[in-house]
Structure formats: structure tokens, C-alpha cells
Amino acid sequence: MFSRCMAIVLVAIFCNSYSVANAADCEGGKVHEIKMLNKSKTDPKMKMVFEPSFVLAAAGDCIKFTPTSKGHNAETIKKMIPNGAKKFKSKMNKELIVQLDVEGLYGIKCKPHYQMGMIALIQVGEVSEDVIKEAAKVKHRGKAKDRFKLLFAGL
Ligand SMILES: [Cu+2]
User: Fold this and answer.
1) What letter would DSSP give residue 118?
2) CATH number of the domain that 114 lies in?
3) In a domain, 12, yes or no
4) Per-residue pLDDT, 22
5) Potential cystine with 131: which of 4, 47, 59, 127 (Cβ 3.0-4.6 Å)?
6) Average model confidence (pLDDT) for the chain?
């Protein structure tokens, strides 16, 4: 009886995680996880971060935003999204899986902590110098400014 219950529990866990991974219909694309954190795991002095804050993905890959810490969301930044791509926005403290089909650069922010520098950059596919220049031109406030500068310097 015990083992039968265990089996049911295991199947339930398996089915649950399977359906979550399947929820975005990633269709064979790779899933890249970005954690939303109060404190960086690699540099504890860094507060309010997406980790990793830069992701290189292929067209059709999915990004999974995980609310590891509470009090965060993830949403696209105006003018930092490729032409023809859909903007997206997660609810506070909720996981969001998005499939990115359009190549280019996506700027991401956490609404409550944008000024504190809680931003991320996602590159999908190859991007031209012009695309990088356009995205790098977007003005930012507070710590978001410095963190974007660092991310663009790495492209
Ligand atoms: Cu946040």
C-alpha cells in the first residue's frame, strides 16, 4: 500500500513537472532558466538580480523566469525588443516561460527593482552591429544604466 502511494506521488510529481516544461510548447527548443534573486549567488554584494543576467539563445528557445526570491517580476523593456516580437510580462512571484522566435535583443526588467539595476539582456540568434547600437541607445535610470553598460560591453 505504501509503495503504491509512493508510486502515485512520484507519477504526480513527474506529470506535474512534465506539464510545466511543456506548458510553453517549447517544441524541442532549449529552456534557459533565469532566476529572480534578492542576492546574487555568485557575488553576494549584488542585490536584486536576474541570474544569469545575460542569456544567448537560439530562435525557438524558451526562457524560464523562476521566482526564487519573492517580490520580483520579469517584463520586456520598451524599445528593447526586436521588431515583430511580442512584449511579455510576468505576474509578481510567478514563474513565466516564454518562447522567443524572433531573433534580436530583448531587454528585461523587474518592475519594482529596475532602478536598483534588476535587468537582464537576452540575445536570440545572431545580431548585427546596428541592432546592438539601437538597443544600447535606450536610456536607463539608476543602477540599470551601469548594469546595461556592462552587458552591452560584453557583446
Ligand atoms: Cu525585483
Assistant:
1) -
2) 2.60.40.420
3) no
4) 47
5) 127
6) 88
Cis peptide before 52 (omega within 30 of 0): yes
Looking at the domain assignment, is residue 144 inside a domain?
yes
CA of 93 to the centre of ligand 1 (A): 10
Q: What is the pLDDT of residue 26?
A: 84
Residue 97 pLDDT > 60: yes
Of 135, 118, 17, the residue nearest 73 (C-alpha): 118
Domain count, the chain: 1
What is the 117 CA–ligand 1 centroid distance (Å)?
Answer: 9
Q: Range of 52's domain?
A: 27-153
Instruction: Count the neighbouring beta carbons within 10 Å of the beta carbon of residue 48.
Output: 22
Distance 145 CA to ligand 1 centre (A): 16
Q: 3-class DSSP state for residue 143?
A: helix
Distance in Å, CA 6 to ligand 1 centroid: 37
CA of 45 to the centre of ligand 1 (A): 15
- Residue 77 Cα to ligand 1 midpoint, Å, equals 14
122 falls within a domain: yes
Query: Percent of the chain beyond pLDDT 90?
Result: 82
